[in-house]
């Protein structure tokens, strides 16, 4: 039996023509016979344009949020889920029946679900490359998995080291390296985070939140040293399905 569900969804971000979400949900609606559902990209130059977007699209039911607005969209929302408030980043917005906007974070769920099958007893500590909105969901998931972590950024600060401090000892102590930066994504596929890849071993996991290309230079260089690698595609699928449930509950 075909379910007639007329709802409108989309993706909020900047420079998002490449995005996974529109293709994924369009295909999902076709396969699962949600004939009345649509999904579109809302590409805005700055977050202040979100107010106008809301006013001009009062029939929206839900949005995904991507770079660079996962943190800056929060002041425009009426409410946050408990997890989103704790994480400090939003990648899913539900438009309630009362016209209110509630923010959720499904990134942490997608990351956790995709990482768990790779974990072995020696995977105790992680390096998180980058400090943007996506890294916050990753950190929250690692907390839930009882994996300690430290952030890596261009400048050292509290719970954050700079790239120049990463050496052989760092790799001995941290068995999971997670790229939460956009470095290496299409079209800039020749770029990679500046870390000493020669210290990866078969005991390491290299995880890249990027999914396009499927194997970034970061993953390729880690794999060459024997590391187990994982890109962000499964994470995206898991978080998208979680968002779908939130929009329709």
Automatic annotation (TrEMBL):
Keywords: Amino-acid biosynthesis, Aromatic amino acid biosynthesis, Oxidoreductase. InterPro entries: Aminoacid_DH-like_N_sf (IPR046346), NAD(P)-bd_dom_sf (IPR036291), Shikimate_DH-bd_N (IPR013708), Shikimate_DH_fam (IPR022893). Its EC number is 1.1.1.25. Pathway: Metabolic intermediate biosynthesis; chorismate biosynthesis; chorismate from D-erythrose 4-phosphate and phosphoenolpyruvate: step 4/7. CDD domains: NAD_bind_Shikimate_DH. This is Shikimate dehydrogenase. The lineage of its organism: Bacteria, Pseudomonadati, Bacteroidota, Flavobacteriia, Flavobacteriales. GO terms for molecular function: shikimate 3-dehydrogenase (NADP+) activity. It is an enzyme of class 1 (oxidoreductase). The keyword Zinc-finger does not apply. Pfam families: Shikimate_dh_N.
């Amino acid at each position: 039996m075909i379910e007639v569900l007329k709802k409108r969804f989309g993706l909020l971000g900047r420079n998002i023509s490449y995005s996974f979400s529109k293709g994924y949900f369009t295909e999902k609606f076709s396969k699962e016979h949600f004939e009345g559902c649509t999904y579109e990209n809302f590409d805005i130059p700055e977050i202040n344009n979100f107010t106008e977007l809301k006013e001009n699209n009062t029939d929206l039911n839900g949005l995904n949020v991507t770079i660079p607005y996962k943190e800056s969209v929060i002041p425009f929302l009426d409410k946050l889920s408990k997890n989103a408030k704790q994480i400090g980043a939003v990648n899913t917005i539900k438009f309630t029946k009362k016209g209110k906007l509630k923010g959720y974070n499904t990134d942490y769920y997608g990351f956790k679900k995709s990482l768990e099958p790779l974990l072995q007893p020696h995977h105790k500590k992680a390096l998180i490359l980058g400090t943007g909105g996506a890294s916050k969901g990753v950190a929250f998931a690692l907390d839930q998995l009882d994996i300690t972590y430290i952030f890596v950024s261009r400048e050292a600060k509290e719970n954050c080291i700079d790239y120049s401090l990463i050496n052989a000892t760092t790799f001995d102590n941290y068995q999971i390296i997670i790229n939460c930066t956009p470095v290496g994504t299409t079209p800039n596929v020749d770029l990679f985070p500046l870390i000493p890849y020669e210290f990866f071993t078969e005991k390491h996991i290299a995880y890249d939140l990027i999914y396009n290309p499927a194997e970034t230079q970061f993953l390729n260089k880690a794999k060459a040293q024997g590391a187990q690698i994982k890109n962000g595609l499964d994470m995206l699928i898991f978080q998208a399905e979680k968002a779908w449930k939130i929009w329709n509950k």
